[in-house]
Every structure is written in structure tokens, then in C-alpha cells.
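#dry-run=false #mode=assembly
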Amino acid sequence: MERPIVMRGTTSLYPARPADTSVPIHEPLALRWSPRRLDASATVSPRELRALLEAARWAPSSGNEQPWRFLVIPREHPRRSELEDTLAPGNAWAKRAAVLIATLAKGTRAKNNEPNRWAEHDTGIATACLIVQAAAIGLVAHPMGGFDAGALARSFGVPDEYTPMAVVAVGRYDPALHDPKLEEREAKPRTRKPLREIAFLGSFGDPVPD
Amino acid sequence: MERPIVMRGTTSLYPARPADTSVPIHEPLALRWSPRRLDASATVSPRELRALLEAARWAPSSGNEQPWRFLVIPREHPRRSELEDTLAPGNAWAKRAAVLIATLAKGTRAKNNEPNRWAEHDTGIATACLIVQAAAIGLVAHPMGGFDAGALARSFGVPDEYTPMAVVAVGRYDPALHDPKLEEREAKPRTRKPLREIAFLGSFGDPVPD
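#status=ok
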């Protein structure tokens, strides 16, 4: 039986599957995960959506280039189905999201059109800020790589110098949604590599001490 | 005169330069910025450092590939100067950081050695989680792109399939540090593109409504 918890500053429910960390971490980071059982009728308010975009907007970037762009498609938008059609079959659950947000990385710098080697990296930073903001107000924000980037760019007039990186499903969790496959996925423990495989001290491959 | 504030859960001081947002956002995201006036003698505890790494470890990634790696070099480490030597002259201030963390993106997937097009993006996501964790406990975490990635890779034995993305200066703010150039930079307002230039509704270039 999942234990629902109330995230800070909201009445939205989010099952507790906290990250298994060796020391406590900031609550929205620990409680954030990527649910798939979204409420197909719940909405996200303009103020909530704006908070997500503002969080992304104020992210740090190389040279303050701000290479990130966000293409926002709410459920009721006339072009919503065009974005949904770009999703991989395994991401069909995301059609229930109140808002889908495609993230784009501008590959060239504004001042000289030279390649910006941090374009995708910094777009990831901004997208993480959006996701943390969502977690902090009890919204689901589930980033997906499984979509047809070319089709998305063609459908929505994305210029060549921008690379679609992710589609983020934003919405509210629906604990009453019955879907055996999704429930099975959500029942599995969340996993990550041990810290010693990703964090090194002094030289590549030498693990940080426990 | 800067107004020092106390961040949640810590006694560290951090001048308040909150993001100018149209709606409130989560406090660590609003208060985070990238100071340069670091305390050259202050330390970061093993527990604090571990919290930063755990926050990054639990970030989301495409296929849960977790392409991020972190090379941690505390101030007292015998190889510290090798990392400092890779910094661009404009980042000399970062030599005062208690800990320098180089971030690396693994460009290939573990299961098949195929390129992972989200490697740099997802490393940015994990790095953002590390930065948010730092902000939440009152630590500075200032990501830098200005360093010699090739020299860093050679010095620290980084394999070819990993791309150095950033060096993050982690430490504590020193409001008493006198450095006219750094003080001048910190006195300037923080700026970002307006939301209408980065967030679009329905089609690329159509701004989200105010």
C-alpha cells in the first residue's frame, strides 16, 4: 500500500518513494520521481506553470547564454495532438498530462553564432530547475527522451540551430488510475548506481570514501 | 549594502540577490546565485559533500543511464593544483573553493556502447541537483565552463568516452573578502532574458501570454 504524502505548499498527493540516500538531502530532491499515472482531467494553473518556467529561466549557464527554450502545449491546445503524435509508444501515458513542455537547446551563441558546447548541458540544468520547482509544489514533472525530435521540430517550426532534448509531462498524480503495467513499474524500487561508481576522489575511477 | 540572509538549515551567510520572478518560486532556486568571493579557509564537511553528491546521484536520466561522473578535489588534496591549473584566468577566484568538483559526461551507453544523445543534457540535470542541494544548505556551488577540458582529462586519467563539462566551485561565501573587481561584479543586477523570449505557446517563437 502506497503511503501518500503531501508535498510542501500544496494539497497535491504524490506517493512516497524517497531516494535511498546515505545522508539526508533537500526534500524536493529526495521526494521527486517520475510517475506515469497522471490525472487526465486535472489542470495546472497559469501561476503554477509560470513558476515552473521562471525556475528554469533563472538557471545558471555558460556565459549567461541561456540556451534553453520551452515549447508549452496545454491539454486543450489545438495543436496538442501533433506533439502527442511525436511520443514513443512507451510514453503514451504522457497524453494524460495537463501540460507537455518540449525543451530545446540553442546550439549557437547569440553574440557570434559560434557553437556553444554547453547548449545541451545547460538546457539540462534549466530543465532540472523546472522539475525541482514542480516537485516543490506537488506537481509531477516527468522528462522523456522518447519522442521523434525531427517530427517535433517540423511540426512546431523549430529552427535548425535548436535541438529538441526532452518532452516534460507536467500534471497531477492520480492514485486511483488503474493500469496494471504502470502500477507494476511504480511498485519497483527506484535504483541508482552506488556513489562509488559515479563520484571519484583525486583521480578518475578512485571512489570517494564511504 | 548587502543584506545577508540565512539559508534554511544552515548558519552560512549568503547575500540576498533573489531572482526577479513574476511569481514566487521555490526558495533555493530563487536565492541561488554564483558568488566568487569564497572563504579560502572555510571547509565543507564530508556530510555536506556527500549530500551534494547524493542529490546528483538521484537525478533522472534517459533510460536511467546516469551518464554523470564527478571528480572531487578538496583544497588539501595533493593533486589540487593540477585542477586549479586547468582553470581559465578569469576563474582564478575559484582556487579559494573548499572543494572543486569536475563533472564528466559519459557519451556512450553502458549496455551497447552506442552514443547517448542525452549524456551532456543529463549531466547538466544532475549538476543542477547538486547545485540546488548546495543552495538548500547555504553552500556556494558555482559551475564554470572556463577550464581546459583536455588538460583536465589528461591530468586525471579521464577515458576518451567521457567529456569534461564543468568545474563546480563549492565552498562558503566570505562577505569580508575585499576584491574590488569581484565586488563590482556582484553588485551588478542579475539578469535573464524575459520569459517571452524563452517560453513559447503552441509554436516556436509565439510567446507565452503574460
